[in-house]
Amino acid sequence: MRQDNRLSCVLHVLLHMAEAGGPMTSEALARALNTNPVVVRRLMGGLREHGYVHSEKGHGGGWTLSCQLDQVTLQDIYEALDAPRLFAIGNRSVETECLVEEAVNHAMSGVLADVKAQLLARFGQITLAALHADFHQRLAERHAPATLCK
């Protein structure tokens, strides 16, 4: 099963946008992700609908943040992406007449629900500001200029 990396990609571009201090084109953000600008526009659509980003067309336009980094959590962004599937594992079948499979499903479902709740609770504790601060700490430790990824 293929990994869903949309949350990681969106967090990545949001931090680049925070550093830019002005509009960033889909093309510039796509270069940071090593992907196509169309992919960036699709990713950003849900964020725009939730009010986290804004876009302007034309010369000097692009994507800008329309939120405060300390007010937005990873859980907020996860939900803006329509809550992508978190786990690649799951029950073999939902409806079964096999009592063994029912027991397996019951155990698996309970554990997965617990872990999902814990993961989302942790996402809710991490703000974009915390990620931004971590980036700046790493930058200072490496004595490197802040540039877009290549």
Automatic annotation (TrEMBL):
Organism: Acetobacter senegalensis
GO annotations of cellular component type: cytosol
Name of the protein: Rrf2 family transcriptional regulator
UniProt cross-references to Pfam families, sorted A to Z: Rrf2 (PF02082)
Molecular-function annotations in GO: DNA-binding transcription factor activity
UniProt cross-references to InterPro entries, sorted A to Z: Tscrpt_reg_Rrf2 (IPR000944), WH-like_DNA-bd_sf (IPR036388), WH_DNA-bd_sf (IPR036390)
